[in-house]
Amino acid sequence: MADAYSILVVDDNQVNLKLIEKVLSKEGYVALLASNGPDARRIAAQEHPDLILLDIEMPGEDGFEVIKKLKNDAATVIIPVLFLTGVSDVDVKLKGFELGAVDYIVKPFHPQEVLARVRIHLKLSIATNSLVQNQARKLRQVTQAQNAMLPRPEDFPDAGFSVFYRPLEEAGGDFYDILNISNQITGYFLADSSGHDIGTSYITASVKALLAQNCNLVYSPIESMRMINDVLVEILSREKYLTACYMHLNRGTRIMTLVNAGHPPVIYMPKGKKPFLIKGQGDILGMFADATFGIKKIAVNEGDRFFIYSDGLVESTKKKISWVAGVKGLLYILGEVGKMKLSDVPSKLISRLFNGEPIPEDDIVFLCIEV
Known about the structure:
Blueprint: E1 6-10, H1 14-26, E2 30-34, H2 37-47, E3 51-55, H3 63-71, E4 81-85, H4 90-99, E5 103-106, H5 111-140, E6 161-166, E7 174-180, E8 185-193, H6 199-214, H7 221-235, E9 242-250, E10 255-261, E11 266-269, E12 276-278, E13 294-299, E14 305-309, H8 323-337, H9 345-354, E15 364-370
Helix pairs in contact: 2-3, 5-7, 6-7, 8-9
């Protein structure tokens, strides 16, 4: 017999708790109960419920504070949250959706509405998991690693990028991709996979396929990376993983969204100004099923530039320098060459950075993007 779905109900009103518990139990669900935020977060982390029904108006930690902490905890980030509220104000609902809620149930609630919404969101969760499993099965059918074609600037004239790419071996562990999401939106992805064996070409081809499937107008940038991570966790061996940076540029709204997955910080150079680091913490791709990623949104202007790179650009086996010193050197040189013609920046930077010294024995990717 299949395990019953468990639903965590969080409400400081004991009458509401008992009522919802009774409604859920009659339908065969396991109801977990909490009357405050700290207890709810503890139970969620320990029991991993399939769904959370969360009251907004509670003493101490209110529902908004609770969901913030749930979404910042790797153990609970993927659990769908439905808010329970006696407030029907649109701004309140929008705030909840922005924090990660999937739906609202307005008090006083009808038992049949509660059950209907629970069923809907359990079905959506099942469908998402099925999609991940289906994509994973398709990618397992790839029996021979292949080097995917890397996009060239002339192939994407409206994307506004230039690149330096040099793999250490034929099957490089570093790679990049450009995604033409719409006539206003472009995605830029750069990753560094562990190892340099032939299996890395399999990872490259797999990730490029996943990018094409999941980076679109339906999913937000952070949702795209979560979907890709879920599949990679299924298909990669334990010793394989990727660090990655995904940048989503909407030229219509002039917003650049950065998602960091354990990758070196992006360098941002506003037009006419000095370059600086945009730091963002995040888990690596393909290792943790409940990974969380750093995300930042930046208002940009025409002519602004971003630079993303693999760690081989600042780590040298010939000159023993620290990571911090390497990044400082990179920033200094970009302050001089970063304003040059976009197509010239990569070669000029490599020339200045290594200054006649042998290029490090590592994969190197340096991607320049102009708004």
